[in-house]
């Protein structure tokens, strides 16, 4: 089959019934890109199609031919106008349109000839879109005044289709015109050559103090792309000073010798550059700075300080400043010597800028309360230290107490040595200065305790060969004390220990002898009684009188035997 000419196709259209599908399909293309326009939404059966032709609406009802293709034939380009070199046919009879532009926004029609009597047209509406070439904020205001409607900036969206709609945002919150503090004016400019639109939006804004450091942006949305957002911008907002604050910059706690800096903070913008500092009756003017430094402060620096504006002295701020200090005085202090029995009441005087904390120790051991002594003892001797703290400040004082007195022996005891061959004598004493310990008998020193809290203990070993009275003597430069104890001879004690068991054996032997003698006596009496009874019975055979008499005697004899038997048992 040969490719049909345009005139032949026209003849066929005139001579047969033409059918046009109802409903208009819309295809969106991107500006400058290649657009594919489907024929019958891609549902064309090319095997049953004799001829496929694409045309477009030139306007005023005039069609313009683009290309035509017959079955088993190549595509024939028919256009000679602006579409020449821009159109071609793709699979399933789709029309490819390159370098899309706004003038391509029209109706393109696909005409399909199935047989000599069936011709169908599929019109497609083409829309070309283009996103803006970014968003740009220009014409920024140098500064904003509180409560005054001022042109803040202009936002421009260049070369788009359809025309961009610009939205203003403050801190990512959309701004809407309210006719008072916010005014937004938009304008549109269309390029005569490309037909693309440039949108401009001018924001007028009445700033508030809280808008300081606020971030402003503009954005736009497009049906083919995500929203576009401009770079953020900020503005300087000017307002007069309404409040002053006087700050003190120093370490955690201001103490004597430190330096402190006074800083006058104003809430105006721009901030004032000159201030007056009132220093306890003296006024110092500072320009191009908001600080004033005082070095080597003392307790006399404590007081109320103020700062004010040079151009408005009535606006001022004040602050009470305290320089912490701590002085202590312990009376008495140092080395203190007292006699036993005396009273001592140390007095700690504290001069400070605030509440203090006091702690006491004796020989580095913490005390529960301040030391007070109504009657001193030797055990009260020692190093007493007090520590006073106030914040970071710390002071210490101490007294070394020595309690002196005539020595006293508190205990003198003895005990037998573990081996039983000697005696141990123990003498315990109190006194100060340290007493010397002596004995009235020669002995071997076993142990002497350290001299602590006025106490000392000495232990000696002795082996007395006779009964003695031993004395322990303690002495120092203030006096002497003596105490005695009786000590028995070690030999005598050993003899008594050995003698005691012999006496006990003699007593035991005596008791056993008595018992044996009683038993022997009982046996003799019993034997005599038997002999007597035998003789008596022989006589009773002769006379009954003798028999009766014998019975009475027999009873007496039995009673006698029984009595002797009881004595033997005892």
TrEMBL record:
It comes from Notothenia coriiceps. It is found in: Cell membrane; Cell projection, Axon; Cell projection, Dendrite. Residues 1-23 form the signal peptide. Residues 32-120, 132-236, 242-322, 355-402, 407-488 form the Ig-like domain. Its main location: membrane. GO terms for cellular component: axon; dendrite; plasma membrane. This is CD166 antigen homolog A-like isoform X1. Keywords: Adaptive immunity, Cell adhesion, Cell membrane, Cell projection, Disulfide bond, Glycoprotein, Immunity, Immunoglobulin domain, Membrane, Repeat, Signal, Transmembrane, Transmembrane helix. The keyword Signal applies. It comes from the Eukaryota. GO terms for biological process: adaptive immune response; cell adhesion. It is a single-pass type I membrane protein. SMART domains: IG, IGc2. The chain crosses the membrane at residues 510-532. Residues 543-570 have a biased composition (Basic and acidic residues). Residues 540-570 are annotated as: Disordered. PROSITE patterns: IG_LIKE.
């Amino acid at each position: 089959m040969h490719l049909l000419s345009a005139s032949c196709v026209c003849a066929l259209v005139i001579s047969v019934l033409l059918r046009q599908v109802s409903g208009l399909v819309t295809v969106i293309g991107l500006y400058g890109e290649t657009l594919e326009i489907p024929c019958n939404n891609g549902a064309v059966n090319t095997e049953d199609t004799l001829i496929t032709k694409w045309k477009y609406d030139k306007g005023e009802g005039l069609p313009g031919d683009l290309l035509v293709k017959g079955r088993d034939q190549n595509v024939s380009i028919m256009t000679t106008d602006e579409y020449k070199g821009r159109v071609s046919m793709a699979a399933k009879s789709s029309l490819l349109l390159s370098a899309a532009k706004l003038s391509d926004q029209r109706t393109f029609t696909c005409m399909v000839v199935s047989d000599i009597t069936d011709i169908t047209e599929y019109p497609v509406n083409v829309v070309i879109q283009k996103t803006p070439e970014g968003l740009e904020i220009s014409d920024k205001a140098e500064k904003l005044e509180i409560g005054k409607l001022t042109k803040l900036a202009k936002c421009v969206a260049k070369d788009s289709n359809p025309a961009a709609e610009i939205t203003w945002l403050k801190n990512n919150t959309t701004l809407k015109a309210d006719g008072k503090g916010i005014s937004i004016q938009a304008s549109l400019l269309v390029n005569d050559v490309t037909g693309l639109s440039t949108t401009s939006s001018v924001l007028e804004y009445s700033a508030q103090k809280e808008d300081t450091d606020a971030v402003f942006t503009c954005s736009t949305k497009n049906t083919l792309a995500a929203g576009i957002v401009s770079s953020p911008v900020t503005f300087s907002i000017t307002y007069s000073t309404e409040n002053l604050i006087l700050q003190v910059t120093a370490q955690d706690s201001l103490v004597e010798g430190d330096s402190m800096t006074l800083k006058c903070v104003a809430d105006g913008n721009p901030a004032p550059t000159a201030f007056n500092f009132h220093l306890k009756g003296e006024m110092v003017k500072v320009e191009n700075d908001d600080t004033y430094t005082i070095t080597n402060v003392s307790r006399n620096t404590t007081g109320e300080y103020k700062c004010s504006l040079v151009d408005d002295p009535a606006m001022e701020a004040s602050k009470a400043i305290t320089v912490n200090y701590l002085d202590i005085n312990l009376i008495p202090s140092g080395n203190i010597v007292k006699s036993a029995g005396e009273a001592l009441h140390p007095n700690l005087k504290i001069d400070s800028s605030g509440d203090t904390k006091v702690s006491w120790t004796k020989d580095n051991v913490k005390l529960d309360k301040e030391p007070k002594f109504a009657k001193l003892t030797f055990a009260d001797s020692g190093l007493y230290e007090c520590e006073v703290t106030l914040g970071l400040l710390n002071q210490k004082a101490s007294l070394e107490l020595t309690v002196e007195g005539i020595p006293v022996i508190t205990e003198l005891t003895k005990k037998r040595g573990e081996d039983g061959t000697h005696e141990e004598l123990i003498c315990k004493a109190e006194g100060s200065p340290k007493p010397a310990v002596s004995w009235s008998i020669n002995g071997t020193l076993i142990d002497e305790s350290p001299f602590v809290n006025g106490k000392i203990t000495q232990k000696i070993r002795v082996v007395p060969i006779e009964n003695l009275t031993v004395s322990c003597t303690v002495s120092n430069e203030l006096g002497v004390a003596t105490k005695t104890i009786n000590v028995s001879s070690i030999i005598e004690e050993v003899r008594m220990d050995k003698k005691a068991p012999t006496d006990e054996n003699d007593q035991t032997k005596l008791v056993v002898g008595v018992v044996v003698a009683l038993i022997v006596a009982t046996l003799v009496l019993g034997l005599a009684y038997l002999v007597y009874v035998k003789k008596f019975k022989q006589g009773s055979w002769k006379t009954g009188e003798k028999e009766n008499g014998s019975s009475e005697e027999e009873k007496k004899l039995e009673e006698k035997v029984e009595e002797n038997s009881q004595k033997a048992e005892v």
